[in-house]
Design goal:
The complex is a heterodimer of chains A (about 600) and B (about 675). Chain A has about 600 residues and is mainly alpha-helical. Helix content of chain A is about 60%, strand content about 5%. Chain A has helices spanning about 5-30, 40-55, 65-85, 105-115, 125-130, 130-160, 170-195, 250-260, 280-305, 305-335, 365-375, 390-400, 415-430, 445-470, 475, 485-500, 515-545, 560-575, 580-585, 585-595, and strands at about 205-220, 235-245, 440, 440-445. In chain A, the strands form 2 sheets. In chain A, strands 1-2 form a two-stranded antiparallel sheet. Chain A is globular. Chain B has about 675 residues and is of the alpha+beta class. Chain B has a 7-stranded mixed beta sheet with strand order 10-22-21-20-11-18-19, sandwiched between helices. Chain B has a 6-stranded antiparallel beta sheet with strand order 2-1-3-9-4-7, with no helix packed on it. The radius of gyration of chain B is 34 Å and the shape is elongated. The two termini of chain B are about 50 Å apart. Classes of the chains: A mainly alpha (about 600), B alpha+beta (about 675). Chains A and B meet through helix 13, helix 14, helix 16, helix 18 and helix 19 of A and helix 7, helix 8, helix 11, helix 22 and helix 23 of B.
Chain lengths: ~600, ~675
């Protein structure tokens, strides 16, 4: 680890800290229907949209109506994407003449993936998707799935803030305002910044370039294995030309981070020089991942009238972030014990540490930081190959997602996921002060606990059950490239990432199979909507409740002690469930690596 | 009912609890407790597998036995809590024994002998000295002294009389003198004593809202850990290290929150029981829980905040009159005054000025009692006429005799009134006003500190009094209450409760009169005095058998302690899991992957001893915590932040550390004696 590396990490956190308040206030104003600077431009557009769609913006919804609207909207959007993928051969802006996305299970997986803000990609973008599909299908979902998340977080906060009412807002209005005010303006500015760094933005056919030095590559047969000649040696082809993929990247790149979507335009995601060319572009992308989620903690404080609580939640997130990034950075900078004797130290000449699967322009610190940030949030963009991280360095992204991505988290989803933990923390420890647990003046009762436990159940249920099936059944094990604990980690990571709507892949697993496409799609849908519905139910229930004015006898949710408690509950309730699985995956791999064995 | 505290491990109760623990193994009874039900199913599975034979019989047998012990310990904890109640119920039952009642037939006054179990609501009975009152009722005629010791434990008899707020009598109590005519108000099986027996026995126990919520949390955690353990097997198979069912069940039982699951109902029963030990009967567990949540306490001034009555605190003489002289006159005027105020004047004169109370025979002195017309009392003695009374009454009396009250005295009167006291002017017919006696409410010793404690807990105290606002404010200041309601009518009280409740607060109050009944019913915690009317007792959700209104504070404390005990043991139980993982996970897989021994940070001897130690710890901790569950966690009045910090340290951090130590010790013992 270097001072420079730490400076970059802490500089990033400071940037997020500074942005929290202004973004938080801005969102509180946007969703409180107060005036903002952008109203003269956006308000007419908003009104026009309501007039076209027949939305009554004054209509208030009970949680059930809110949930049904959200579900129907998501279903319609998902079907739309599915058909776009399947029809793309007949649609414009397809210079590479890509046919339908196939098999159908892949199209289904991708539709589910983008609808749920997961952006799990069982396909390489530049070899599968036309520009039209990228823009009208994927980028559209990047916006609206993020907007749905933000809308729901705001609805949850309203449930806490409101008193003795049935309603928690209007889904259509919240979603529209998320898109117009919270996502679009920032993405316009952000994409221009990225273009300034060299991110491409065009609709041209792919470039072709002659290689300076033609190279010999083994010819692959249809089964993916090298074709052998009569002499038993692989047949080699000479490659003299390189295809350089193009496209409207910048516009999609920025929402990929700002909306914590994570789906790369290119297969290499943010490791690709056209997506993330410079360290500054890298910082812009990192910042974009946390910005909205950090701001929401301030919005929470402002809307509920307890700013200190917002900061207490922020602090819990920041501490967990720092713990994660420290472990990853340490593990990666430490290098590979098997290469002891080789010079792995950081110096002016080299990054040092474990550089396998990392980009030289980012080095150890920014790769470790990116891996931590993208999994703290439910982003899933990557600028390095998690599969090539050291076992402990790779375990941090996995654990981050297992904690249900509440360390700042996905836009909106991080906030409501965290609030579920808050409800559990308040309930478990709240009794210890001798009162029925109260959260910001609302009593936490049986119904709320029941719904919170339903949410808590989702992760163990889908991740452990499906990963468990995958490691003992041939339809699962046949996709494993690496045996042993590393293979186990890959499978667990795949289902964790999809359940958490993260979308980053550990890699090393062939996921474009019927089993992984379908099981994965279901995992993503369950991970998204099973979590959202009980969450909305709690919101509706809290909104109905009376407000109990806080006193000195009330459980404090604004103190450092609360922050510590919240962290403990996140770690104990969130991580303990997965400890057995982790001990057979990354922990075992780490210990075996120490003993000189790799996978 | 005995007031003394019962020892935790009373052999009679333990013996019964051991038997009950076995009876409770009935799966239909276990189903109410999802956590322990899962343990029981696990025990059954391992037992069946044990009889199918296989290797490692000794280890498997021990695991199976300890799993059964875990279930039995949980049942035992519950049975212990119930047993303490049952012991009390047995004492009460003796009082309920069948008696013969004199039921009046018709209006002519004839009576017939019927067994008390045949009495119905509305029947009229005659009860004479020495007889037991056959059932709950209301006195229609007569006055009697009644021995209620079987309910209250108080041996001094109480007076019960027709009309007013002291007319209710309880079945099973005994009339000591006189004869009363009683109208029966309860049918057999529904009397106060019956309800009390059912309550202390826990027969009518329903889960309270908090308990239900906690049960949901525990059931949810159980399902989560069930998933974690069930899916561990495929991962283990993939890793080439499949596990036996014995080990998997052990892991499951150690992870699910058995500690709190086992003790949860015991904590609830014990909370009710602690109230009973304070001679308070809660009609439902819900009420006890609500007591912990109370934000506002409405306290009657008289009896709760102040001693029953005003007392003389000062003599302020008129100009030209000696203090001694005034005291003497005041004492003379009060010698025959049997009111508490009058007696306090005699006492003050004696204590402060050494004036002994004198025996005055009737021929030299004529006592003038207080009347509503004169509003004065006094004495005529050797031609003197000493009078004492309210300022305006004495003024009128003196004007009659051509004298004026001096301005200084008037000023004193005003000043005393303003400071919350009651001024009594003393005058002699020929000499005019001699001075003023200040009567003051005497605030109970230590009550100020108690209010401070309540404030520290975030509870607001409101004093309810019939006094004028001036007097009320002064007493409120002296006693340190947060607020007061002066010249309070029952309606004012009701309005105050509703106002507080509208703000989302929970209100507790005490009351005894029939006109308190609506407010008692409206309050979230209404403690009726046992001496009160039937209406009041039925309206409230608790009855204080000692009729001591100060006890409301105890009730709140017990309610809080109940909730704290639940929260603390839940936290402890969940925190325990960390150590258990570090015991069992390396034990499961270190055979295949010796490197995993790095996780065996307790350095447990063998995989068998590690698993066994964790299971034993998990079972034994239940027994070890029974006293805590029954007694409740230590409670000191302080703010929530401080309470949380303390309890998080003890039960959170302690919950993580203690099992590491405990499991290590058990491991040393069982490997030492060769069990594993």
């Amino acid at each position: 680890m270097t001072a420079n590396g730490w400076f970059q990490i802490l500089f990033f956190l400071a940037l997020v800290f500074v942005a929290t308040k202004p973004i938080g206030i801005y969102m509180a104003r946007v969703f409180g229907r107060e005036r903002t600077l952008l109203d003269p431009v956006l308000r007419p557009i908003e009104k026009l949209l309501y007039r076209l769609t027949g939305v009554d913006e004054e209509h208030e919804m009970a949680w059930t109506e809110y949930a049904i609207s959200m579900l129907l909207f998501s279903l319609a959007s998902m079907l739309l994407l599915y058909f776009l993928e399947r029809m793309q051969g007949f649609l414009p802006w397809n210079p590479q003449k890509f046919g339908a996305v196939s098999p159908a299970s892949l199209a289904f997986n991708t539709a589910a993936s983008f609808t749920t803000n997961t952006n799990w990609q069982n396909y390489p973008g530049e070899m599968t998707m036309s520009y039209f599909t990228q823009m009208a299908g994927l980028a559209y979902h990047n916006f609206i799935s993020a907007a749905v998340g933000i809308a729901l977080a705001i609805a949850f906060i309203r449930g806490i803030a409101r008193r003795e009412t049935e309603t928690i807002g209007n889904f259509w209005v919240d979603m529209t305002r998320s898109c117009l005010w919270v996502l679009l303006p920032f993405c316009v500015v952000g994409s221009l910044l990225l273009v300034s760094q060299g991110v491409v933005q065009n609709l041209r056919p792919y470039d072709r370039a002659s290689l300076v030095e033609p190279m010999q590559v083994p010819r692959l047969g249809p089964d993916g294995n090298p074709v052998l000649g009569p002499d038993g040696k692989p047949v080699m082809d000479t490659v003299a030309e390189q295809t350089i993929a193009q496209g409207p990247v910048a516009s999609q790149e920025i929402i990929k981070e700002w909306g914590t979507n994570g789906g790369g335009f290119f297969n290499a995601n943010s490791a690709h020089p056209f997506e993330n060319p410079t360290p500054l572009a890298n910082l812009i992308e990192l910042f974009s991942i946390f910005a909205v989620s950090a701001g929401l903690t301030y919005t929470l404080g402002r809307m509920t009238g307890s700013q200190a609580h917002g900061w207490a939640v922020w602090a819990a997130m920041a501490i967990l972030f720092l713990v994660g990034v420290t472990v990853t950075y340490w593990a990666e900078a430490h290098g590979n014990p098997l290469l002891a004797g080789t010079d792995q130290r950081a110096s002016d000449a080299q990054s040092g540490g474990n550089m396998e699967g990392k980009e030289v322009r980012f080095g150890i610190a920014n790769s470790a930081l990116f891996a931590t940030v993208t999994t703290d949030a439910s982003c899933g963009a990557i600028n390095g190959w998690h599969d090539s991280f050291t076992p402990l360095g790779g375990m941090v992204p996995l654990v981050n997602i297992m904690l249900s991505e509440v360390i700042f988290g996905g836009v909106g989803s991080g906030m409501y996921g965290m609030l579920i933990y808050v409800v559990l923390a308040v309930f478990i420890a709240g009794l210890m002060v001798g009162r029925t647990p109260e959260y910001l003046g609302k009593k936490i009762e049986a119904y709320d606990v029941k719904m919170a436990m339903l949410v808590a159940l989702v992760f163990p249920l889908v991740i452990l059950t499906l990963a468990g099936l995958s490691v003992v059944k041939p339809f699962g094990t046949s996709s494993i490239f690496n045996p042993g604990p590393h293979g186990l980690t890959e499978i667990i990571y795949a289902f964790t990432s999809q359940a958490g709507n993260n979308g980053s892949a550990f890699g090393g697993l062939n996921e474009n199979t019927l089993w992984y496409n379908v099981a994965g799609a279901l995992t993503m849908l369950i991970g998204r909507f099973w979590m959202m519905i009980p969450m909305l139910a709690i919101s509706g229930n809290l909104a109905r409740k009376k407000y109990v004015p806080p006193s000195i006898g009330t459980f404090p949710v604004t103190t450092p002690l609360f922050t510590v408690l919240l962290i403990s509950v996140i770690l104990i309730v969130g991580a303990l469930t997965f400890f057995p699985a982790l001990s057979l995956g990354p922990i075992l791999e780490h210990l075996l690596l120490g003993a000189g064995k790799t996978f | 009912m005995a007031k003394k505290k019962r020892a935790i491990w009373e052999w009679k109760i333990v013996r019964r609890a051991i038997w009950d623990a076995l009876v409770k193994l009935n799966p239909r009874k276990m189903m109410g407790n999802p956590v322990m039900f899962v343990v029981e199913i696990g025990s059954v599975i391992t037992t069946v597998l044990l009889f199918q034979g296989g290797s490692a019989f000794g280890f498997n047998l021990q695991i199976t036995l300890w799993l059964w012990f875990t279930v039995l310990f949980a049942n035992f904890a519950e049975a212990m809590a119930e047993g303490r109640g049952k012991a009390q119920a047995d004492t009460l039952r003796k009082a309920r024994s069948e008696t013969i009642a004199n039921r009046m037939t018709g209006s002519d006054g004839t009576v017939e002998k019927v067994p008390s179990s045949k009495l119905r609501q509305g029947d009229l009975v005659l009860v004479s000295a020495g007889e037991f009152i056959p059932s709950d009722g209301e006195i229609l005629e007569g006055v009697a002294s009644v021995d209620e010791s079987c309910i209250t434990g108080e041996s001094a008899p109480v007076i019960r009389e027709a009309g007013g707020d002291r007319s209710a009598v309880t079945g099973g109590t005994r009339v000591l003198s006189d004869q009363i005519k009683v109208r029966i108000t309860s049918n057999p099986g529904e009397t106060f004593l019956d309800r009390m027996i059912a309550l202390v026995e826990g027969a009518e126990r329903h889960k309270t809202p908090n308990e239900i919520a906690l049960n949901i949390l525990l059931a949810g955690l159980t399902i989560i850990f069930l998933l974690a353990v069930v899916t561990l097997q495929p991962f283990a198979i993939y890793s080439g290290s499949p596990q036996t069912v014995f080990v998997l069940v052990s892991l499951l039982v150690c992870l699910i929150p058995t500690t709190i699951g086992a003790l949860l109902s015991a904590i609830g029963i014990a909370g009710m029981d602690r109230l009973v030990q304070h001679n308070v009967l809660a009609m439902s567990g819900r009420a006890v829980e609500a007591a912990g949540d109370v934000n506002t306490l409405l306290l009657d001034k008289t009896g709760t905040i102040t001693l029953g009555n005003r007392q003389a605190s000062r003599f302020v003489p008129a100009p030209g009159v000696g203090e001694q002289e005034l005291a003497d006159a005041a004492q003379l005027s009060s010698l025959a005054d049997e009111t508490p105020e009058g007696r306090s004047i005699v006492v003050l004169a004696k204590e402060k000025y050494g004036l002994r109370g004198r025996e005055l025979s009737t021929h030299e002195a004529r006592f003038v009692p207080f009347t509503a017309q004169t509003r004065m009392s006094g004495v005529d003695l050797n031609g003197f006429e000493i009078r004492k009374g309210a300022a305006d009454a004495v003024q009128a009396y003196l004007t009659q005799h051509g004298r004026e009250v001096p301005a200084e005295v008037k000023a004193t009167v005003e000043q005393i009134a303003r400071s919350g006291g009651t001024p009594l002017v003393v005058a002699e017919k020929s000499r005019g006003a001699l001075g003023v006696i200040e009567l003051k409410d005497v605030v109970k010793g230590g009550i100020r500190e108690r209010f401070e404690q309540l404030r520290a807990m975030g509870i607001k105290t409101v004093m309810i009094t019939g006094d004028n606002p001036l007097t009320a404010a002064a007493i409120a200041r002296e006693a340190g209450v947060d607020d007061f309601l002066a010249q309070a009518t029952p309606k004012d009280k009701m309005d105050l409760i509703k106002k507080e409740q509208a703000e989302g607060k929970l209100v507790a109050m005490t009351g005894d009169g029939t006109n308190d009944a609506p407010a008692l019913a409206q309050a979230d915690v209404g403690v009726a005095m046992n001496t009160g009317t039937q209406a009041a007792k039925e309206a409230g959700n608790m009855v204080d058998l000692d009729s001591n209104p100060t006890k409301l504070i105890e009730v709140v404390r017990i309610g809080k302690q109940l909730l704290m005990t639940r929260g603390s043991l839940t936290t402890f139980s969940i925190a325990n899991d960390v150590a258990k993982y570090f015991a069992i996970i390396p034990a499961m897989f270190a055979g295949t992957f010796p490197v995993l021994n790095a996780l065996n940070i307790m350095r447990l001897k063998t995989p068998e001893s590690a698993v066994l130690s964790a299971v034993i710890f998990n079972a034994v901790i239940i027994i070890a915590l029974i006293p805590l569950a029954l007694r409740g966690v230590k409670y000191r009045p302080m703010g929530a932040a401080a309470l949380l910090r303390n309890n998080l340290w003890i039960y959170g951090a302690g919950g993580i550390i203690i099992p590491f130590i405990g499991i290590k010790l058990i491991d040393m013992v069982i490997t030492g004696v060769g069990l594993a």
